């Protein structure tokens, strides 16, 4: 329900309300994003015993040189807070899929390292996850829609990651 006044009658002090079409697009995005995250989370919990965010961390480590990243880099790459990352890595350590190593050049820094067992878990469950992503997203879109979606999401993500001092980004919290 759009309870906003008509755009032409809004004063300079009033919010710039969404139009009916913008409201439709916004709500469609929220519904799709929520359902997609739930779909992927349930698939990975069922098949691999881990939430989607943990799977994403394993992927990021697998794609990194020597299967390792500094914890701050991993948080930035995953777009999550440092405390959420620390909790996730602790759980992944318990499973034997990740280990922490101290950084030799920085006494306070640590690396997250994907273990051989973690890499095997990733290899075993990647096909099912890719199939879930393909069915949920790519099989429903034309190649042109896929390209547009990628461009749109890149623009939104770039706009939400200011590079200036004082930026309020998850991995800086």
In a nutshell, what does this entry contain?
Helices cover 58% and strands 10% of the residues.
Helix and strand topology:
Layout (H helix, E strand, L loop, with lengths): L19 H29 L3 H11 L5 E3 H8 L3 H14 L2 E6 L2 E9 L1 H21 L6 H17 L14
Antiparallel strand pairs: 1-3, 2-3
Helix pairs in contact: 1-5, 3-4
**How helical, in percent, are the residues?**
55-70%
Question: Looking at the structure, what is the overall shape?
Answer: globular
| Overall pLDDT level | 91
How do the helices and strands follow one another from N- to C-terminus?
A: HHEHHEEHH
N-end to C-end Cα span = 34 Å
Q: Find the structural class using helix and strand composition.
A: mainly alpha
Placed side by side, the strands forming the largest sheet appear as 1-3-2
> What share of residues are in beta strands?
5-15%
Largest sheet, strands/sense/barrel: 3 strands, antiparallel
Uncertain regions spanning at least 5 consecutive residues: none
Radius of gyration: 20 Å
User: Count of helices?
Assistant: 6
Number of strands: 3
Describe, in plain words, how this protein is organized in 3D.
The chain has 173 residues and is mostly helical. It has six helices and three strands; from the N terminus they run ααβααββαα. The chain has helices at 20-48, 52-62, 71-78, 82-95, 116-136, 143-159; strands spanning 68-70, 98-103, 106-114. The protein has a three-stranded antiparallel β-sheet. A hairpin with a 2-residue loop joins β2 (98-103) and β3 (106-114). α3 (71-78) crosses α4. It is globular and about 55 Å long. The protein starts with 19 loop residues before the first helix and ends in a 14-residue tail after the last helix. The mean pLDDT is 91.
């Amino acid at each position: 329900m759009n309870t906003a006044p008509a755009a032409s009658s809004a004063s300079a002090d009033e919010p710039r309300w969404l139009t009916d079409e913008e409201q439709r697009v916004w709500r469609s995005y929220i519904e799709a994003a929520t359902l997609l995250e739930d779909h992927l989370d349930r698939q990975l919990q069922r098949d691999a015993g881990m939430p989607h965010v943990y799977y994403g961390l394993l992927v990021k480590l697998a794609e990194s040189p020597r299967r390792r990243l500094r914890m701050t880099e991993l948080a930035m790459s995953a777009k999550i807070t440092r405390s959420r990352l620390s909790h996730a890595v602790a759980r992944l350590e318990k499973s034997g899929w990740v280990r922490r190593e101290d950084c030799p050049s920085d006494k306070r820094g640590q690396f997250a390292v994907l273990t051989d067992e973690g890499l095997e878990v990733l290899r075993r469950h990647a096909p099912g996850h890719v199939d879930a992503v393909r069915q949920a997203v790519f099989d429903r879109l034309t190649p042109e829609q896929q390209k547009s979606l990628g461009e749109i999401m890149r623009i939104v993500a770039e706009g939400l990651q200011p590079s200036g001092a004082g930026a309020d980004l998850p991995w800086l919290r």
